[in-house]
Design goal:
Length: 128
């Protein structure tokens, strides 16, 4: 785990830290080829510069976000924002279903929208 993500985790309360550490472990194992870093103050994983998954602490939970998640057509993920993102919110580490998370992570590799070039395309997303 890089220093920035370690620092992010250390800044959390115990329950939230456990959630984030579990998410980090599962994501990093499922996406070994992905680059991970702090992006916009939160841990995010990228494939070829395209953001695919990340998490961050909200007021009352930890939100797991898949940038292309609405296209996964999966129960358990809720639409987020005006593009193709979908989220799952956790308040306890026991809520993380590893099999479900691994399935979503597999889809995050296979189903991607080109967020890397969204500014160049003036807000238009293209499926990769």
């Amino acid at each position: 785990m890089n220093k920035e993500i370690t620092a992010y985790h250390k800044g959390l309360m115990d329950d939230d830290q456990l959630i984030c550490e579990k998410l980090y472990d599962v994501i990093s194992t499922a996406l070994p080829q992905a680059e991970n870093k702090i992006w916009h103050r939160h841990p995010v994983w990228f494939l070829d510069g395209n953001p695919i998954v990340g998490y961050h602490k909200l007021k009352d939970c930890v939100r797991l976000l898949f940038w292309s998640g609405q296209s996964f057509e999966e129960d358990g993920l809720s639409p987020e924002g005006s593009f193709k993102a979908a989220e799952k919110r956790y308040t306890n580490v026991k809520e993380i279903k590893v099999t479900e998370l691994k399935r979503w992570l597999k889809k995050s590799q296979d189903i991607q929208w080109d967020y890397k070039n969204i500014v160049k395309r003036r807000g238009v997303l293209v499926r990769l």
